[in-house]
């Protein structure tokens, strides 16, 4: 129920719809009960009951006499209208019943009308909240999670809530009020018969609760398995070229089918348990109706109660008993709805828990309360005795490096030496375990993340583009950029030469992940995006690794021009691209082993020279 309360927090902005929904449901429940009550005078007329109508308009003097007041008031109104004509009296009561049902259904429509805005609003805000938190969470969170599982939480789990938890919103007011009003009317008609009915209600509730006990656990298994096969699907779509290239279609097909088979079995168990709810509650309800028929019928026939140790006179008119039976059935419908709602809450509990896990996950990279908004870069970047580990082993150990403004520093070394980790730390995708990363003497953890990253232009090893036009991909770097500025940036990155020949130029859609373009073209667009942003600090993580030799030369010239007035951190695999760097830092197992310019490092005849000799220069 805690998860239910957490989800309902999202209903706060829609209070006015909630109020309208509640008021409409109050009237729905009230008119629903009154539509049965007004049957009594009609049945009295049909069964020729000798009802003596008052000659003056009745008044309510004591609350304990409310039953007699309603009976006398209805009898008075019927008599006033009919003047002793039974057919005229019957017509009056029939019209009254029609109006009761009309008002009931109008109220029901209004309740559902307001609920549409309430429920859909909650779902929208919940989905937006999950997505927003997903974007805010650090990369470390997603390295431990399957993408398919995240997709499952944002899509199917939220949808599951719509048809489990949030369908309960419809029942929170309507069904309990219907039961309360109905039981009140039943008590007024016959307190003895109603108390008899209450003997069976706890038994019914106990049986239903036993059936629903395992629903949450079964639902959790279904949702986790859905995350598994969605993850397999996502991996398949991402790596389809490799799967086909290695003839691994059967292997992945088998993996997917194993997951969907488990999902099939788990879903069957869950749905069969859910399907047991309605027939069980209906059968139990009929058992109660049968008990009422026997007990109430004997009261009408004999005019007394004789049950267990109770024996007393009790009068119950035939018209009242039939109305009472109708009211009893009127309890069954909301009781069944409430039992289904309890099942839904159990089932939705698993989905709510999985969604809440994302929403409640603390963000270790969240801005501090009084974080500084930095708008300029003035002097230097300093890595001060930093140590960092992704899991157990440190990738960087007591690493220190100062990069003055306007200088280009290249980081080289074997794979796993910690080069890309430096890029992850300066951009604050991760926080250091020990030490500090400083910009102009300010610890980057004291800055707002948005202002820090506004100072940085990032070009990653993998050219990450989105299923949109070239123009919109470029405008990630500068949302206010004009077409002319976009074209200038494309020219700097030597990308304009192929963009200008595309069918719609910069408005051409490049497909999912930019797959309508070659690897080199995608990387040049990625570089152009960073150029368009025009930040004071550039972080280039293997920026030319996806380019062919010709493209590399073209882009290298562009990068050198772009970096002239900027501070640049260049992580390079191809050492030919960083020979002109102001300083080259050679890393090995998270530590600096050599540092200097290209010529000086070659002269040292150390690690850097060995790396150079392993590569051929053209």
TrEMBL record:
The chain crosses the membrane at residues 21-43, 89-118, 179-208, 283-301. One of its GO terms (cellular component) is plasma membrane. InterPro entries: AAA+_ATPase (IPR003593), ABC1_TM_dom (IPR011527), ABC1_TM_sf (IPR036640), ABC_transporter-like_ATP-bd (IPR003439), ABC_transporter-like_CS (IPR017871), P-loop_NTPase (IPR027417), Type_1_exporter (IPR039421). Keywords: ATP-binding, Membrane, Nucleotide-binding, Transmembrane, Transmembrane helix, Transport. Its main location: membrane. Residues 22-347 form the ABC transmembrane type-1 domain. It is found in: Cell membrane. It is a multi-pass membrane protein. Residues 381-614 form the ABC transporter domain. GO terms for molecular function: ABC-type oligopeptide transporter activity; ATP binding; ATP hydrolysis activity. It comes from the Bacteria. This is ABC transporter ATP-binding protein/permease. It comes from Wocania arenilitoris.
């Amino acid at each position: 129920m805690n998860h239910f309360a957490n989800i309902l927090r999202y209903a706060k902005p829609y209070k006015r719809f909630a109020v309208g929904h509640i008021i409409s449901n109050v009237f729905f429940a009230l008119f629903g009960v009154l539509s049965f009550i007004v049957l009594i005078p009609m049945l009295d007329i049909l069964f020729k009951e000798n009802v003596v109508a008052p000659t003056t308009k009745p008044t309510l003097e004591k609350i304990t006499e409310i039953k007699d007041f309603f009976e006398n008031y209805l009898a008075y109104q019927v008599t006033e209208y009919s003047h002793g004509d039974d057919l005229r009296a019957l017509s009056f009561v029939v019209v009254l019943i029609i109006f009761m049902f009309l008002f009931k259904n109008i109220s029901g429509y209004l309740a559902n009308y307001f609920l549409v805005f309430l429920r859909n609003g909650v779902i929208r805000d919940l989905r937006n909240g999950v997505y927003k938190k997903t974007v805010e969470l650090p990369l470390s969170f997603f390295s431990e999670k399957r993408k398919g599982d995240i997709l499952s939480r944002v899509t199917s789990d939220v949808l599951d809530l719509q048809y489990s938890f949030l369908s309960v919103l419809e029942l929170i007011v309507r069904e309990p009020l219907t039961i309360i009003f109905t039981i009140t009317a039943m008590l007024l008609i016959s307190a003895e018969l109603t108390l008899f009915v209450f003997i069976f209600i706890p038994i019914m509730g106990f049986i239903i609760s036993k059936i629903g006990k395992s629903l949450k656990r079964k639902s959790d298994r279904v949702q986790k398995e859905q995350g598994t096969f969605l993850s397999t699907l996502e991996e398949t779509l991402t790596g389809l070229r490799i799967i086909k290239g290695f003839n691994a279609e059967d292997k992945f097909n088998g993996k997917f089918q194993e997951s969907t088979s488990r999902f099939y079995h788990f879903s069957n168990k869950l749905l069969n348990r859910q399907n047991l709810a309605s027939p069980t509650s209906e059968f139990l309800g009929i058992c109660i109706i049968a008990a009422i028929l026997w007990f109430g019928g004997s009261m009408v026939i004999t005019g007394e109660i004789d049950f267990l140790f109770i024996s007393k006179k009790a009068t119950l008119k035939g018209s009242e008993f039939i109305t009472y039976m109708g009211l009893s059935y009127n309890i069954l419908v909301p009781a069944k709805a409430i039992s289904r709602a309890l099942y839904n809450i159990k089932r939705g509990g698993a989905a709510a828990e999985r969604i809440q896990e994302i929403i409640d996950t603390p963000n270790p990279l969240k801005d501090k309360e009084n974080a500084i908004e930095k708008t300029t870069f003035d002097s230097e970047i300093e890595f001060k005795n930093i140590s960092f580990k992704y899991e157990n082993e440190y990738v960087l150990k007591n690493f220190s490096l100062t990069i003055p403004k306007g200088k280009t520093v290249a980081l080289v070394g074997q794979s796993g030496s910690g080069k890309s980790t430096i890029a992850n730390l300066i951009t604050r995708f991760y926080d250091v375990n020990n030490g500090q990363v400083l910009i102009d003497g300010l610890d980057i953890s004291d800055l707002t993340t948005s202002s820090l990253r506004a100072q940085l232009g990032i070009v990653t090893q993998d050219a990450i583009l989105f299923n949109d036009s070239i123009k919109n991909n470029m405008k990630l770097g500068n949302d206010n950029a004009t077409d002319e500025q976009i074209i200038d940036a494309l020219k700097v990155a030597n990308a304009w030469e192929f963009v200008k020949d595309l069918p719609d130029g910069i408005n051409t859609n490049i497909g999912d992940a930019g797959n309508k373009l070659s690897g080199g073209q995608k990387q040049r667009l990625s570089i152009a995006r960073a150029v368009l942003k025009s930040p004071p600090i550039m972080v280039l993580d293997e920026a030319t690794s996806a380019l062919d030799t010709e493209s590399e030369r073209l882009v290298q010239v562009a990068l050198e021009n772009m970096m002239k007035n900027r501070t640049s951190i260049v992580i390079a695999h191809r050492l030919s691209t960083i020979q002109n760097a102001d300083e080259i830092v050679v890393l090995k197992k998270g530590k600096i082993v050599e540092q200097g310019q290209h010529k000086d490092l070659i002269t040292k005849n150390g690690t850097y020279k060995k790396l150079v000799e392993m590569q051929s220069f053209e």
